[in-house]
Design goal:
4 helices; calcium; four-stranded mixed β-sheet; mainly beta; six-stranded mixed β-sheet; repeat; Immunoglobulin-like; about 375 residues; membrane
Amino acid sequence: ISGYSLVIQARDSGTPPLSSSVTVNVDISDVNDNGPVFTPANYTAVIQENKPVGTSILQLVVTDKDSFHNGPPFTFTILTGNEEEEFTLDPHGVLRSAVIFKHMVATEYVLCVQAKDSGKPQQVSHTYVQVRVIEESIHKPTAIPLEIFIVTMEDDFPGGVIGKIHATDQDVYDVLTYTLKSEQKSLFKVNNHDGKIIALGGLDNGKYVLNVSVSDGRFQVPIDVVVHVEQLLQEMLQNTVTIRFENVSPEDFVGLHMHGFRRTLRNAVLSQKQDSLHIISIQPVAGSSQLDMLFAVQMHNGGFYKPAFLIQKLTNARRHLENVIRISAILEKNCSGLDCQEQHCEQSLSIDSHSLMTYSTARISFVCPRFYRNVRCMC
């Protein structure tokens, strides 16, 4: 307990008795009676041969139960095992290489490390660090090409994570890093450690080919990443149809079904090859395992097919579409639960372009805005 707060009252013997109160705060000062604690108590680390000088090998984690002025900052010292000065230990507890290690020269080092706290008198603790030197990487990383589709309203893309590169390496101890060619960093970024791709705001309509590479420290492998950006027109939203799928997650639809269903859907609803199919958004139906896909079809002359025409085409081709994925319903208007006839139901669709949903798989990623339906009776 670091302190107590007491309220003390003094009362006299008069009639009536009078009294007064005062608060007394008692602070318990800390003495340095706890030493630093290593977590874990001892360490095992690995470094590959031929890694450059200064390579990070291990981060020591130290805590102290005393108050802050009797705990950190800690002073770290290698007491034994570093007679040839192969290692350095910085003030933050990061163990680094001071030489280029060779597996044929030595395969293991055992260091005794001391941590000293900032109290008076100082308390010390010790840990042992076993460092194994292993052969350098012999396998190149392998990475899966990634294709990303972004749907956004005109000039209103807020930016964010749009996908993730999936890469592996057969060398167990390899640490993979990801880099993006410098001239593309004005529009995109790649997280060096986990391969997440981030798009900055304001992307224009079009196709972007990113020069991304993954490295294990010895081998560097290029990865094909293609980003397609499609900007929605306001007129599209007035001519949309929704297909509702049964028992499918957004990620499964994107990764397993979207390409095949898009192809089948084009054959079903396009009157001419020059017409364009636009998948505007996909999102789960709240409280169910269903999934809604919102789309519109643009004619080659610039206009859009009316929803009633598309629904007729879809109804005729439903059996072929369900060869790809099971369909629950085809919706122009979603008026369930309203007490009015279908022809008197009015629906408006709104898009929240700042609330993006990213459905990412190893090979394909789909980024789209959230949409909302508003329905009302006109009877």
